[in-house]
Protein backbone atom coordinates (compact mmCIF):
# COMPACT_ATOMS: atom_id res chain seq x y z
CA UNK A 1 0.00 0.00 0.00
CA UNK A 2 1.36 3.47 -0.80
CA UNK A 3 1.38 6.07 1.94
CA UNK A 4 -0.50 9.18 0.77
CA UNK A 5 1.51 11.25 3.24
CA UNK A 6 4.78 10.16 1.64
CA UNK A 7 6.91 13.11 0.59
CA UNK A 8 10.22 11.26 0.30
CA UNK A 9 12.36 12.59 -2.52
CA UNK A 10 10.40 15.81 -3.04
CA UNK A 11 12.45 18.95 -3.56
CA UNK A 12 11.29 21.61 -1.12
CA UNK A 13 12.04 25.27 -0.46
CA UNK A 14 11.13 26.86 2.87
CA UNK A 15 11.47 30.62 3.24
CA UNK A 16 12.14 31.93 6.73
CA UNK A 17 13.26 28.38 7.43
CA UNK A 18 16.01 29.30 9.87
CA UNK A 19 13.74 30.08 12.83
CA UNK A 20 10.40 29.33 14.44
CA UNK A 21 7.66 27.84 12.25
CA UNK A 22 9.86 27.70 9.13
CA UNK A 23 12.62 25.80 10.94
CA UNK A 24 10.04 23.33 12.29
CA UNK A 25 8.77 22.81 8.73
CA UNK A 26 12.30 22.34 7.37
CA UNK A 27 13.07 19.77 10.10
CA UNK A 28 9.83 17.82 9.56
CA UNK A 29 10.09 17.72 5.76
CA UNK A 30 13.73 16.61 6.06
CA UNK A 31 12.78 13.90 8.58
CA UNK A 32 10.17 12.62 6.11
CA UNK A 33 12.74 12.28 3.36
CA UNK A 34 12.24 15.48 1.37
CA UNK A 35 15.29 17.43 0.20
CA UNK A 36 14.93 20.84 1.77
CA UNK A 37 16.43 24.24 0.98
CA UNK A 38 16.10 27.05 3.50
CA UNK A 39 15.89 30.55 2.07
CA UNK A 40 16.43 33.08 4.84
CA UNK A 41 18.04 36.48 5.24
CA UNK A 42 20.00 34.92 8.13
CA UNK A 43 20.59 31.19 7.67
CA UNK A 44 22.48 30.71 10.96
CA UNK A 45 19.66 28.61 12.39
CA UNK A 46 18.95 26.53 9.25
CA UNK A 47 18.35 22.95 10.46
CA UNK A 48 20.98 20.25 9.88
CA UNK A 49 20.65 18.46 6.59
CA UNK A 50 19.12 21.42 4.76
CA UNK A 51 20.65 23.48 1.96
CA UNK A 52 21.06 26.99 3.38
CA UNK A 53 20.49 29.79 0.88
CA UNK A 54 21.02 33.30 2.22
CA UNK A 55 18.64 35.71 0.49
CA UNK A 56 16.23 38.47 1.41
CA UNK A 57 12.72 38.03 0.01
CA UNK A 58 12.65 41.75 -0.82
CA UNK A 59 15.45 41.18 -3.38
CA UNK A 60 13.90 39.76 -6.54
CA UNK A 61 17.22 38.74 -8.10
CA UNK A 62 18.41 37.03 -4.94
CA UNK A 63 15.10 35.14 -4.68
CA UNK A 64 15.38 33.98 -8.30
CA UNK A 65 18.95 32.77 -7.78
CA UNK A 66 18.02 30.91 -4.58
CA UNK A 67 14.95 29.25 -6.12
CA UNK A 68 16.94 28.17 -9.19
CA UNK A 69 19.76 26.84 -7.00
CA UNK A 70 17.35 24.73 -4.95
CA UNK A 71 15.73 23.30 -8.08
CA UNK A 72 19.14 22.53 -9.61
CA UNK A 73 20.44 20.92 -6.41
CA UNK A 74 17.39 18.66 -6.06
CA UNK A 75 16.74 17.96 -9.73
CA UNK A 76 13.37 19.72 -9.41
CA UNK A 77 11.17 21.65 -7.02
CA UNK A 78 7.84 20.21 -5.81
CA UNK A 79 7.07 22.01 -2.58
CA UNK A 80 7.30 25.69 -1.75
CA UNK A 81 6.57 26.88 1.76
CA UNK A 82 6.49 30.67 1.71
CA UNK A 83 6.75 31.51 5.35
CA UNK A 84 9.16 34.43 5.83
CA UNK A 85 7.36 37.29 7.51
CA UNK A 86 7.75 40.14 9.97
CA UNK A 87 5.41 41.82 12.44
CA UNK A 88 4.22 45.35 12.98
CA UNK A 89 2.46 46.82 15.99
CA UNK A 90 0.05 49.74 16.01
CA UNK A 91 -3.14 51.28 14.71
CA UNK A 92 -3.39 52.62 11.17
CA UNK A 93 -2.10 55.96 12.46
CA UNK A 94 1.03 54.57 14.08
CA UNK A 95 3.00 53.27 11.09
CA UNK A 96 4.27 55.66 8.40
CA UNK A 97 4.32 54.98 4.66
CA UNK A 98 7.86 53.63 4.83
CA UNK A 99 6.85 51.03 7.43
CA UNK A 100 3.76 50.08 5.41
CA UNK A 101 5.85 49.63 2.27
CA UNK A 102 8.49 47.58 4.05
CA UNK A 103 6.10 45.16 5.78
CA UNK A 104 4.09 44.66 2.58
CA UNK A 105 7.36 44.21 0.67
CA UNK A 106 8.36 41.33 2.97
CA UNK A 107 5.02 39.73 3.88
CA UNK A 108 3.15 40.08 0.58
CA UNK A 109 5.58 40.84 -2.25
CA UNK A 110 8.09 38.38 -0.77
CA UNK A 111 5.56 35.60 -1.39
CA UNK A 112 4.79 36.96 -4.88
CA UNK A 113 8.49 36.90 -5.82
CA UNK A 114 9.02 33.36 -4.51
CA UNK A 115 5.97 32.11 -6.42
CA UNK A 116 6.93 33.93 -9.61
CA UNK A 117 10.34 32.26 -9.74
CA UNK A 118 9.18 28.88 -8.45
CA UNK A 119 6.25 28.40 -10.86
CA UNK A 120 8.30 27.28 -13.91
CA UNK A 121 9.96 24.61 -11.74
CA UNK A 122 6.66 23.57 -10.17
CA UNK A 123 5.03 23.16 -13.60
CA UNK A 124 7.79 20.74 -14.59
CA UNK A 125 7.46 18.88 -11.28
CA UNK A 126 3.69 18.52 -11.61
CA UNK A 127 4.16 16.03 -14.44
CA UNK A 128 6.58 14.02 -12.28
CA UNK A 129 4.61 13.82 -8.99
CA UNK A 130 0.90 14.55 -9.59
CA UNK A 131 -0.89 15.68 -6.43
CA UNK A 132 2.37 16.43 -4.65
CA UNK A 133 3.18 19.83 -6.08
CA UNK A 134 2.16 22.79 -4.00
CA UNK A 135 2.75 26.22 -2.57
CA UNK A 136 1.78 26.83 1.04
CA UNK A 137 1.75 30.33 2.48
CA UNK A 138 2.07 31.02 6.18
CA UNK A 139 -0.79 33.44 6.66
CA UNK A 140 -2.29 34.20 10.11
CA UNK A 141 -5.55 34.41 11.99
CA UNK A 142 -4.79 38.15 11.78
CA UNK A 143 -6.11 37.99 8.18
CA UNK A 144 -9.70 37.71 9.41
CA UNK A 145 -9.75 38.12 13.22
CA UNK A 146 -9.79 41.90 13.57
CA UNK A 147 -6.89 42.00 16.04
CA UNK A 148 -6.35 45.29 17.88
CA UNK A 149 -3.04 47.13 17.35
CA UNK A 150 -2.17 45.11 14.26
CA UNK A 151 -3.53 47.18 11.32
CA UNK A 152 -0.50 46.85 9.05
CA UNK A 153 0.28 43.24 9.93
CA UNK A 154 -3.38 42.22 9.49
CA UNK A 155 -3.62 44.00 6.13
CA UNK A 156 -0.49 42.19 4.93
CA UNK A 157 -1.90 38.80 5.95
CA UNK A 158 -5.36 39.58 4.55
CA UNK A 159 -3.61 40.18 1.24
CA UNK A 160 -1.78 36.86 1.57
CA UNK A 161 -5.12 35.10 2.04
CA UNK A 162 -6.56 36.73 -1.11
CA UNK A 163 -3.36 35.96 -3.01
CA UNK A 164 -3.61 32.31 -1.97
CA UNK A 165 -7.14 31.99 -3.34
CA UNK A 166 -6.35 33.78 -6.61
CA UNK A 167 -3.22 31.67 -7.15
CA UNK A 168 -5.13 28.48 -6.37
CA UNK A 169 -7.57 29.35 -9.18
CA UNK A 170 -4.84 30.30 -11.63
CA UNK A 171 -2.76 27.16 -11.19
CA UNK A 172 -5.20 24.38 -10.35
CA UNK A 173 -5.29 23.08 -13.94
CA UNK A 174 -1.50 23.03 -13.99
CA UNK A 175 -1.51 20.55 -11.12
CA UNK A 176 -0.17 23.08 -8.64
CA UNK A 177 -2.10 23.39 -5.39
CA UNK A 178 -1.98 26.63 -3.39
CA UNK A 179 -3.08 26.80 0.24
CA UNK A 180 -2.28 28.69 3.40
CA UNK A 181 -2.09 27.92 7.09
CA UNK A 182 -3.42 30.34 9.66
CA UNK A 183 -1.52 29.87 12.90
CA UNK A 184 -2.81 31.30 16.15
CA UNK A 185 -0.15 32.60 18.51
CA UNK A 186 2.72 30.18 18.08
CA UNK A 187 5.59 29.76 20.50
CA UNK A 188 8.47 30.98 18.30
CA UNK A 189 11.47 33.30 18.78
CA UNK A 190 9.29 36.08 17.29
CA UNK A 191 6.76 35.79 20.11
CA UNK A 192 9.68 35.47 22.54
CA UNK A 193 10.98 38.84 21.36
CA UNK A 194 7.52 40.42 21.73
CA UNK A 195 7.17 39.05 25.26
CA UNK A 196 10.63 40.34 26.21
CA UNK A 197 9.38 43.85 25.43
CA UNK A 198 6.26 43.50 27.63
CA UNK A 199 6.13 45.05 31.12
CA UNK A 200 5.28 41.65 32.58
CA UNK A 201 6.32 38.91 30.10
CA UNK A 202 4.85 36.06 32.16
CA UNK A 203 1.46 37.76 32.46
CA UNK A 204 1.50 38.63 28.76
CA UNK A 205 2.34 35.02 27.83
CA UNK A 206 -0.56 33.81 30.01
CA UNK A 207 -2.91 36.31 28.35
CA UNK A 208 -1.88 35.14 24.86
CA UNK A 209 -2.41 31.51 25.89
CA UNK A 210 -5.82 32.28 27.42
CA UNK A 211 -6.93 33.95 24.16
CA UNK A 212 -6.85 30.52 22.49
CA UNK A 213 -9.64 28.09 23.45
CA UNK A 214 -7.06 25.34 24.07
CA UNK A 215 -5.60 27.62 26.75
CA UNK A 216 -2.05 27.37 25.42
CA UNK A 217 0.13 28.64 22.62
CA UNK A 218 0.40 26.64 19.40
CA UNK A 219 3.74 24.88 18.94
CA UNK A 220 5.75 25.43 15.74
CA UNK A 221 5.73 21.64 15.24
CA UNK A 222 1.92 21.67 15.14
CA UNK A 223 1.94 24.26 12.37
CA UNK A 224 4.65 22.27 10.57
CA UNK A 225 2.51 19.11 10.69
CA UNK A 226 -0.33 20.94 8.92
CA UNK A 227 2.05 22.29 6.28
CA UNK A 228 3.58 18.82 5.72
CA UNK A 229 0.06 17.47 5.17
CA UNK A 230 -0.76 20.20 2.63
CA UNK A 231 2.50 19.41 0.80
CA UNK A 232 1.74 15.69 0.62
CA UNK A 233 -0.32 13.71 -1.90
CA UNK A 234 -2.80 13.09 0.95
CA UNK A 235 -3.95 16.65 0.22
CA UNK A 236 -4.17 16.09 -3.55
CA UNK A 237 -7.77 17.42 -3.58
CA UNK A 238 -7.02 20.36 -1.28
CA UNK A 239 -6.40 23.73 -2.89
CA UNK A 240 -7.57 27.26 -2.13
CA UNK A 241 -7.90 26.38 1.54
CA UNK A 242 -6.90 28.26 4.69
CA UNK A 243 -6.14 25.69 7.38
CA UNK A 244 -6.39 27.15 10.87
CA UNK A 245 -3.89 25.85 13.42
CA UNK A 246 -4.99 28.14 16.18
CA UNK A 247 -6.23 26.19 19.17
CA UNK A 248 -9.82 26.79 18.02
CA UNK A 249 -9.54 30.58 17.98
CA UNK A 250 -11.13 31.07 14.57
CA UNK A 251 -13.72 28.30 14.59
CA UNK A 252 -15.07 28.40 18.15
CA UNK A 253 -17.23 31.47 18.26
CA UNK A 254 -18.62 30.58 21.67
CA UNK A 255 -15.76 30.39 24.13
CA UNK A 256 -15.78 27.13 26.11
CA UNK A 257 -16.43 27.50 29.86
P1 LIG B 1 10.50 34.03 13.36
O1 LIG B 1 10.89 35.45 13.50
O2 LIG B 1 10.85 33.06 14.44
O3 LIG B 1 11.07 33.46 11.98
C1 LIG B 1 10.93 34.20 10.80
C2 LIG B 1 12.08 33.87 9.86
O4 LIG B 1 11.89 34.64 8.66
C3 LIG B 1 13.46 34.27 10.43
O5 LIG B 1 14.40 33.21 10.24
C4 LIG B 1 13.83 35.51 9.61
O6 LIG B 1 15.25 35.65 9.44
C5 LIG B 1 13.12 35.24 8.29
N1 LIG B 1 12.87 36.47 7.56
C6 LIG B 1 12.26 37.60 8.01
N2 LIG B 1 12.28 38.54 7.07
C7 LIG B 1 12.92 38.02 5.99
C8 LIG B 1 13.25 38.51 4.71
N3 LIG B 1 12.99 39.78 4.36
N4 LIG B 1 13.88 37.69 3.83
C9 LIG B 1 14.20 36.42 4.20
N5 LIG B 1 13.92 35.90 5.41
C10 LIG B 1 13.29 36.69 6.29
O7 LIG B 1 8.92 34.05 13.11
P2 LIG B 1 7.78 32.91 13.17
O8 LIG B 1 6.96 33.20 14.37
O9 LIG B 1 8.33 31.57 12.95
O10 LIG B 1 6.92 33.39 11.91
C11 LIG B 1 6.94 32.73 10.66
C12 LIG B 1 5.69 33.09 9.88
O11 LIG B 1 4.55 32.73 10.64
C13 LIG B 1 5.53 34.59 9.56
O12 LIG B 1 5.05 34.74 8.24
C14 LIG B 1 4.47 35.04 10.55
O13 LIG B 1 3.73 36.13 10.09
C15 LIG B 1 3.63 33.80 10.67
N6 LIG B 1 2.85 33.71 11.90
C16 LIG B 1 3.45 33.62 13.10
C17 LIG B 1 2.66 33.53 14.23
C18 LIG B 1 3.26 33.42 15.61
O14 LIG B 1 2.51 33.55 16.58
N7 LIG B 1 4.55 33.16 15.75
C19 LIG B 1 1.26 33.54 14.13
C20 LIG B 1 0.68 33.63 12.88
C21 LIG B 1 1.49 33.71 11.76
Please describe what this structure looks like.
- Belongs to the short-chain dehydrogenases/reductases (SDR) family.
- It is a single chain.
- This protein has a seven-stranded parallel β-sheet, with helices on both faces.
- The chain contains eight helices and seven strands, in the order βαββαβαβααβαααβ.
- By secondary structure, the protein is an alpha/beta fold.
- The chain has helices at residues 20-31, 60-74, 97-128, 142-145, 151-171, 189-197, 201-210, 220-231, and strands at 11-15, 35-40, 51-54, 79-82, 134-138, 177-183, 242-245.
- Bound molecules: nicotinamide-adenine-dinucleotide.
- Nicotinamide-adenine-dinucleotide binds next to α1, α3 and α6.
- Nicotinamide-adenine-dinucleotide is lined by residues 16, 18-22, 40-42, 56-58, 83-86, 106, 110, 138, 140, 183, 185-186, 188-191.
Amino acid sequence: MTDAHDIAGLGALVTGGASGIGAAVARLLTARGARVAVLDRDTTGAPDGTLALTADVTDDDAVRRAVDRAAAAFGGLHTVVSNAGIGAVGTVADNDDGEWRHVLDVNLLGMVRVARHALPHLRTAAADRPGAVSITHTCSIAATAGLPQRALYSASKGAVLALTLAMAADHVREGIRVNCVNPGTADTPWIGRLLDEADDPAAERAALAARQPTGRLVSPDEVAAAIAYLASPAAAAVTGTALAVDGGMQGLRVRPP
